[in-house]
Amino acid sequence: MERMHDLSYFRSNFERIAERLATRGNVAGLDQFRELDQPRRSAITKAEQLKARVNEQSVEIGKRRREGADTTGQQEQVRAMKAEIAALDEQVQSLDARFQELLASIPNVPHESVPVGRTAEDNVEVRRVGSPPRFDFEPKAHWDLGPELGILDFERAAKITGARFALYWDLGAKLERALINFMLDVHTRHHGYTEVLPPFLVNSASLFGTGQLPKFKEDLFKCEGHDLWLIPTAEVPVTNIFRDETLEAESLPIKLCAYTPCFRSEAGSYGRDVRGIIRQHQFQKVELVKFARPDQSYDELEKLTADAEDILRRLGLPFRTVVLSTGDLGFSNAKTYDIEVWLPGQNAYKEISSCSNYEAFQARRAGIRMRTGKKAEYAHTLNGSALAVGRTWVALVENFQQKDGSVVVPEALRPYLNEEVIRPRK
Q: Which residue in 347, 350, 359, 367 could disulfide with 244, CB within 3.0 to 4.6 Å?
């Protein structure tokens, strides 16, 4: 299924692909594909017939000219047929361009192991680690705890910029930085990732390669007057490191991790998570990105998900992992695990990481190939947050809060923060 954006493969396997895509819900563009395909096939058939006639006529003209016959009329017919062939070829090229534009708007085909469902309610829990803490007092949400501790300020952030931004103070800022360093160290020292620090601005080609453009333009921030966009996730610049390159199969998997700030307009999330720092226009993440061989990519997805979960295990945070149903899958994703951390302030599990296999969907758009001997094919790309730093910050503050309003720092993080307890600022 990974070749769905190969036009000939898509056309010859249309019914099978359409059936699997239908499990996502109403996928626009499939009916239009059928409508475009008929005139294209007709134009190709007619052009092939005319080319055969031109060849026949050319042989006949050559024979007659050797016999001294007048072939003016036949030559005019051949010229007219060649002009018609050129027009038909141009028509086919135009239709193919429209096909490619259409295919760019059609989502990836869900892997066969993805549960069929319509919404997030149909996601399937695969494991649960740890138990939500029990408090002998009413636990507070981070939007109350943070300001009371003097480590989080929403009012001044709104004054500086606007809604959905946060200002971290003192140990709040240090806790964010500690988490970033802790995550990068775990992934590079224990999980075998190579750290990279990519640009935080990318061009349109990069966003097309990973599937954000053209479909999700409204979710992005663009720099006026430039072909530059603020990145919505490190997935975009890190995946595009190898855009239009051919990797040696023996070098795969390539495992990269990166810290970046991320910027999202949250155009489609009106009214969701409006309080606190769960859903911000600017936030920090540590991202894992892999380039894998097609026959190994689903094993690599399991490993990547385990690497993300390991951060929560080391911090002692309760979480659960769910596999997304077909109706809840992201546009580019073939299969996704969401890791959800327990937040006492919301009395609910909230997503803290999405770990996905894109198969060849992104690689085809971005031209990322792998070579085995003389054969070249598209690599598979994977990524996952490990973790969303702000949400980890929230989880720590809410899960480790104490009756006196302080927050206990988990042991794994103490060497980075040089504090055992975050206390209210006097």
A: 367
Return the beta strands (E) in 33-154 as ranges.
124-129, 152-153
CA–centroid distance for 195 within its chain: 19
Averaged confidence pLDDT in the chain? 91
Tell me how far apart the alpha carbons of residues 162 and 175 are, in angstroms, rounded to a whole number.
Answer: 23
As a whole number of angstroms, the distance between CA 108 and CA 2 comes to 8
Closest alpha carbon to 307 in 173, 195, 187, 166:
187
307: Cβ contacts below 8 Å, ≥ 6 apart: 187, 191, 193, 288, 384, 386
As given in the structure block, the two tokens for residue 151 are 């480590």
> Measured in whole angstroms, how far is the alpha carbon of residue 308 from the centre of its chain?
16
- Cα(394)–Cα(387) distance, rounded to whole angstroms? 12
d(CA 328, CA 356): 13
How far is it, in rounded angstroms, from Cα 382 to Cα 108?
13
User: Does 57 have pLDDT greater than 80?
Assistant: yes
Considering the chain, what percentage of its residues have pLDDT values greater than 70? 96
Q: Hunting for tokens 């295919």 — which residue is that? A: 103
Radius of gyration of the chain (CA): 28
Helix (H, G, I), strand (E, B) or coil at 243: coil
Which pLDDT score is estimated for 272? 62
Q: Tell me what the mean pLDDT of segment 320-333 comes to.
A: 96
Interacting residues of 341 by C-beta distance below 8 A, sequence separation 6+: 312, 317, 318, 319, 349, 350, 352, 391, 392, 395
Least confident of 99-103, 130-134, 289-293, 326-330: 99-103
Say if residue 269's pLDDT is above 50. Answer: yes
Virtual torsion, Cα 58, 63, 64, 65, nearest 10 deg: 90
Q: How large is the angle between the packed helices 171-189 and 389-399, nearest 10 degrees?
A: 110
Res 2: pLDDT: 39
Q: What is the pLDDT of residue 275?
A: 82
d(CA 232, CA 31) in angstroms, rounded, equals 31
139 neighbors 407 (Cβ within 8 angstroms):
no
> What pTM was estimated for this model as a whole?
0.87
Model confidence at 359, pLDDT cuts 50, 70, 90, reads very high
- Sort residue 359 into left (φ over 0), alpha (ψ -120 to 50) or beta: left
Question: Given pLDDT bands bounded at 50, 70 and 90, which one contains residue 314?
Answer: very high
Query: Active-site residue numbers?
Result: 264, 279, 351, 354, 391
